[in-house]
Write a structure and sequence with these properties.
Number of strands: 0
Structural class: mainly alpha
Shape: globular
Strand content: under 5%
Radius of gyration: 21 Å
Number of helices: 16
Order of helices and strands: HHHHHHHHHHHHHHHH
Helix content: 55-70%
Length: 373
């Protein structure tokens, strides 16, 4: 049974909005966790490290799954050329606007807080083009936190022909759904993700690097393809809803198991057993969110319409605002949790002010931020 184009799955929009809020909270926590970042609080916190590690397991995989849902519906309505034009407008233009404007602020703050540069922001700008970021230089060719836009564009180009063949192969999608929508069979999607994680772990310094949101780009590609397959048939939705409580239980148990394997047993994060637990945890969280959202959030209201339009500009702006505010408060002697709340609240307010009074009402800026006029 193929997915009906006339239906609007509002729970996907809700997941996109709630997922963006999660990314926002995640990047606020990066200011306090024990890993390096563009700017760090004077006091780091183990609890924030655990929080970041848990979100690492699912937050960006969820976005690639949701993006694939949107692409499925876009390909039903648009030609090849129209689809690629939309990808450029929605993804590449905001990416390159960010790279050549506000992303420079993040690189500047990272350089001065890591004592690699002394001088004003205006003095730093010529040095922004000295070498490639991630390879000893400064030029943020992937847009720092905007790497998702670049990767999504590349995946869209890479998989376009395959997705079009999938759309024409109703026998394949129907037979796959016949198998995967049987009781508990949605967990079979753990297998391809684990296999890819295992393969890339054999080359941890190349394709196995987890610099992009905690996963290899090739693992994201697997999530992306799975998301597209889930969009092709109506029967996946009730199958995922039915196991939502089991998925939640599995999510919590595998979080504990991952902590034991890394913290108590000191396994390396490329150990196959840990990779299996991590993959099971990620997919369980995704099924949990999709199952509960499908059951409880398949409706629209004024807030959803507003928030869904604001998601992309919010994403583009959020980390730069967090880093700038973090730079000015890093030496404040506050306790970690009140400081986290202050950083999150002030960042959210400033982002929304910029969106509401600068981006949203100006057609030219809407275009630069990937919005419709």
């Amino acid at each position: 049974m193929q997915l009906t184009d006339k239906k609007r799955y509002f729970y996907i929009d809700w997941l996109r909005v709630l997922g963006m809020l999660t990314i926002f909270l995640f990047h606020n926590a990066r200011f306090f966790n024990e890993e390096d970042w563009h700017v760090k609080n004077f006091e780091l916190n183990f609890g924030m490290s655990v929080f970041v590690a848990i979100l690492d397991h699912f937050v960006m995989p969820l976005f690639f799954v949701l993006s694939a849902f949107a692409i499925y519906h876009a390909l039903k309505k648009r030609s090849h050329a129209e689809f690629m034009h939309e990808r450029i407008i929605r993804l590449l233009i905001p990416l390159y606007v960010g790279i050549f404007t506000h992303i420079i602020l993040q690189v500047y703050i990272e350089n001065i807080t890591h004592r690699r540069f002394t001088g004003s922001f205006w003095q730093f700008i010529p040095h922004y083009f000295d070498g490639w970021y991630g390879f000893g230089g400064n030029f943020a060719w992937m847009g720092l936190h905007l790497w998702y836009l670049l990767m999504l564009f590349l995946f869209s180009c890479l998989m376009l022909s395959t997705f079009q063949r999938i759309n024409r192969s109703q026998n394949f999608t129907t037979r796959l759904a016949d198998i995967v929508t049987k009781p508990f069979s949605v967990y079979l999607f753990i297998i391809p993700v684990f296999l890819m994680e295992f393969l890339v772990s054999l080359s941890p310094e190349t394709v196995g690097r987890r610099d992009f949101g905690g996963w290899s780009p090739l693992s994201y590609l697997v999530f992306f393809v799975i998301g597209y397959l889930l969009a092709t048939d109506d029967r996946y939705r009730p199958a995922i809803e039915k196991v939502r409580f089991i998925s939640l239980t599995s999510s919590l148990l595998t979080v504990i198991a991952a902590y034991i394997l890394l913290g108590e047993m000191n396994l390396h994060d490329t150990n196959p057993l840990y990779l299996l637990v991590r993959t099971a945890n990620s997919w369980s969280w995704l099924l949990t969110f999709m199952g509960f959202a499908s059951h409880h959030l398949n409706f629209s209201n004024r807030f959803l319409k507003y928030a869904n339009e604001a998601v992309l500009p919010f994403y583009i702006l959020h980390q730069t605002v967090i880093v700038v505010i973090g730079y000015f408060i890093k030496d404040w002697g506050w306790m970690v949790f009140p400081k986290y709340l202050f950083l999150a609240a002030t960042s959210f307010i400033l982002i929304m002010v910029l969106y509401e009074f600068a981006v949203k009402p100006v057609n030219f800026l809407r275009y630069l931020f990937g919005m419709k006029g």
